Amino acid sequence: MTENCAPAGAVDPRTAVEGTPARKRVAVGSSIGATIETYDFIGFGTAAALYFNQVFFPSTDPLSGTLLSFATLGIGFAVRPIGGIVGGYLGDRIGRKPVLVGSLLLMGIATVLIGLLPTYDQIGVWAGILLVAVRVVQGLAFGAEWGGAILMTFEHAPWRKRGLYTGITQAGFPVGLLLANLAFLLSVPLGDQWAWRVPFLLSAVLIVVGIVIRLKVEESPEFESLKAEGEVSKNPLAEVLRTDWRNVLRAFCLRITETAGYAISVTFVLSYLSTTELADRSVTLFALMLAAGIGIAATVAWGALTDRVGRRPVYLLGTALSVAWGVPLFLMLNTGLATAVVLAFVISYAVCQNSLAGVQGAWFSELFAARTRTSGASLAYQLSAVVSGFTPLVATALYAGTGWIGPALLFSGYGVLGFVAALSTRETWGREERAEVAALEAALAAPSAAEPVRRPNTVSGA
């Protein structure tokens, strides 16, 4: 049984085994929303690495411009915990669906505004200030997004396939990454002024589509059950910090390996390849797009694998690979060979990053009780963004002082942190939990399986 013993409520056995009738629509709808949010947020990272150092900051000192550009990128990550706290609180208090719609709308407005901002040559230092202000709004919206999307999918899914279904939602992130970089690749011929503006302006179309889809998504059945039973937490944030702070800390450390690893192996590497002239923009964008394309299937596959073998074994594998990959990553990049660069991106993203991202949706959700689940999972997930958001800045400073070995060892160090955290975090979908669900499935097949059953605590995280 889990550490969390809050009442989980009753659930129809067929719903437990098969999920709700809306399970697929919710998973796809959440994934599409995650795609749009990622397109907007990650597009900023690509633009920061390739354009913003010259567009919004003085171009007389390239290194300083790059540092300022990555600092602006980091600010968006720094405010994500605030968005996660607000979104998590509202998700546990008023429902998951309103948070999904609101965060997407806020992100869309901020992203379109980026495409309309004046440059440093036009208004001087105010260009950077306006960029920071809009980036803060982006960070707040993105921070509120993840918990709502994942929890909606998790709570509509059949217990035995929660890894698969949350993996589908998590796959929205590589789809957004692919679309964002495709937009930047196709906009290159437009020239430096429009090459970075058009991708942000195009997000307006995606936002309209996403809002329409999310308005049709049904509210989480577990939240509706909690509300009907009067079990909605009055202060979910305070409750989860008081009763479950250890899981918040564990999930925070688990998450850092994935998100900070991405910040080095993708965001920093884009700038590294550009400034060292090891590869031109078309090669790096193609490599990232290919990695993202493979990552769509990889994320779902990694999530589905956890339904068969458990959450922790897959995470231990992913973090161990991250520990080993730091130095080989840069050795491959330093060859300057296009094939080596492409392969480096694929391994970094589809293997190291996706093996962790595909697990997080189900594992983090199962660590927390239903009444505080959005607050707990969102807080842990977004707090790590503070570290990862400034990682490209730290990696750039390390590179300036030590060369490529500094960022390489930093990448491996994040892997060590995640590996230790995985060892100290309980398995939530082991043999005992899978046996409980198998027994429920057998009971459902019997003629007497007509009464509602209690959720197995080990499965619901409650």
UniProtKB/TrEMBL annotation:
Domain Major facilitator superfamily (MFS) profile: start-end pairs: 26-430
Name of the protein: MHS family MFS transporter
Domain of life: Bacteria
Membrane topology: Multi-pass membrane protein
Signal peptide as annotated in the record: none
Transmembrane segments: 67-91, 98-117, 123-143, 164-188, 194-213, 252-273, 285-305, 314-331, 337-359, 379-398, 404-424
Organism: Pseudonocardia humida
Compartmental location: Cell membrane
PROSITE patterns noted in UniProt: MFS
